[in-house]
Structure formats: structure tokens, C-alpha cells
Amino acid sequence: xxxxxxxxxxxxxxxxxxxxxxxxxxxxxxxxxxxxxxxxxxxxxxxxxxxxxxxxxxxxxxxxxxxxxxxxxxxxxxxxxxxxxxxxxxxxxxxxxxxxxxxxxxxxxxxxxxxxxxxxxxxxxxxxxxxxxxxxxxxxxxxxxxxxxxxxxxxxxxxxxxxxxxxxxxxxxxxxxxxxxxxxxxxxxxxxxxxxxxxxxxxxxxxxxxxxxxxxxxxxxxxxxxxxxxxxxxxxxxxxxxxxxxxxxxxxxxxxxxxxxxxxxxxxxxxxxxxxxxxxxxxxxxxxxxxxxxxxxxxxxxxxxxxxxxxxxxxxxxxxxxxxxxxxxxxxxx
Length: 334
Known about the structure:
By secondary structure, the protein is an all-alpha fold. The chain has one domain (6-326): Ammonium transporter fold, CATH 1.10.3430. Helices cover 57% and strands 1% of the residues. It has helices spanning 38-60, 62-85, 96-106, 114-126, 142-153, 155-158, 178-185, 191-196, 208-220, 227-247, 252-259, 263-270, 281-301, 308-326; strands spanning 6-7, 23-24. A two-stranded antiparallel sheet has the order 1-2. The radius of gyration is 20 Å and the shape is globular.
């Protein structure tokens, strides 16, 4: 039978504060792995993010370094202050604040002003995490809560204009992002540039190759569930493929949506957050497919060229219902 419960438990309000072990509630037999824990999972995520980090610094140079420094430091300071205000024990040693800061920074434009990263980080840690009780208690992905706040509050700074002033090794930095160019101007980007990352965009979302490399590492280490990213990618492939065929785009429309934007980064590093995604295997498929459908609805019919952030947050909101719907019936229960 599938595992029916999985959550982080290293926070001060968690059942097992000392070990920080990941608790699985499932039919017996039960084996305790004392080597597993939040810190170990966060280290795995940081290792998986290394290809994206290195490439973002190579392509966007000081823009990437600036955003990473601002978001990581602010997330750590915010967690320290908010936890102290609540009178709880410090949780910085589990590295979850560092991971949130890195993911948040990688989802921002490199040229966004410093206060955008600071405010996004404070909101991510305060409203996205600590207000719910800390790690393991939050409903929404903290990094996406922070990014959504600044996206709405500073629409102009986070929009197309934020990509126009960057200089680096990316040839297209002075133009729109690939999905913006496709949606508003009908222009397509070179597929090889989309795959390797030599395009404009948020500093960690341009390279499909780097995201796949890191994402597959997470799946191999079983830190991320494979059903969610596969569900997202297959759903986008089907919907974009149908749109491509009906519009006679000769495969270009499908390739742009599959390799462009934040799809791969979101599928492997955002949607797979075990705290805010479903617990059962069937629930993970529902979550992945639902996220993929919402991504394409937003990309095709809204004023936004991208849809990963809002799609994940909306599916986070229905995750408790998905868990209830897909919870296996205990043996012997009528």
C-alpha cells in the first residue's frame, strides 16, 4: 500500500524535534532510518540546485550573485527573527531557510531592485512559513508566496521591463523572455538556446538541461516524488501538442512551452515540495496533472505568459482535499 503520510518534522512544533526524522505513516512493518531527516533532504536539494546555480552565475554574472545573496541572507535573518518572536527554538540548522532563499532568488529576474528580493524573502518566511507554525505546517510553498507577493505588488519591476537592462553572456538579455515573445509577438526562440539556457528569463529558469540534471538527482535520491514532475510535463506536452497541431505550428509551439519558462524548474523544485504536495501516489498524479492543466490555461488564456507559480499555489490550496480523497481505506474498515 502506498505511503499515506509524509511530512517534515524538524520544526519546534513537530512530534520529533530532536531527530528531525521524516515520518512515514503506512502499514507495517516499520523501519526507522535515523540518518534521514530534514537537514539531509535540504542538503540533497542544494546539491541538485548546483547545476542551476553555476549556470545562472555564468550567464547572468553579478545579477545572479546579487539576487542569491539578498534572498538567502534575508530568508535566514527573517526566520531567525520570526522564530525568536514566537519564542521557539532556532531552526536555521536544518537549511530549509537557505533552500527557500535559493529557490526564491532563482525565480526572480536578475535586475529586480534589491528591495524586491528583501520583501519577497520576508513575506516567504513570515507569511508563507512561520505564520503557519514553521516547517512542516505551511500550506503553500513559501518561495512562491514571496514571489507572488512581489509579482502583484511590483508588476512593472517584475514584468518585461525587468529583463531589458541585464548584460551578460545571454544573447537575448535585451529582449523579452521566450514565452513573452511567443505570446505577445508570435516569435519563437531557438530550441538549443532554450535547452542550454542561453535565453532571457529569471536567473534559474532558463536552462532545461540544468533543471533536468538537478531534478533527476532529486528523484534518484527519492527526495522528490517522480509522479508530480512527470504528471506536469506529460500534461503540458498533451495540451501544448494539441494546440500545436490545431494551429499548424509544426512543433514549435510545443517545444517553446515544454522547454521555455519555468516549467522544468517548477516541476522538479517547486511542485515536489513534500510539505505542500499530496501524500499518496494517486494524489501526486492528480496534483501533477492538475498543475499542468492550470499552467497551460494561464499561459494560453490569461494576460500572463507564464503560469507555473500561480498553478502550484492553487494546487497547494486543494492538497488537503486531495489527501482526503485519495487516503487508502484501512484494512477491515467497512
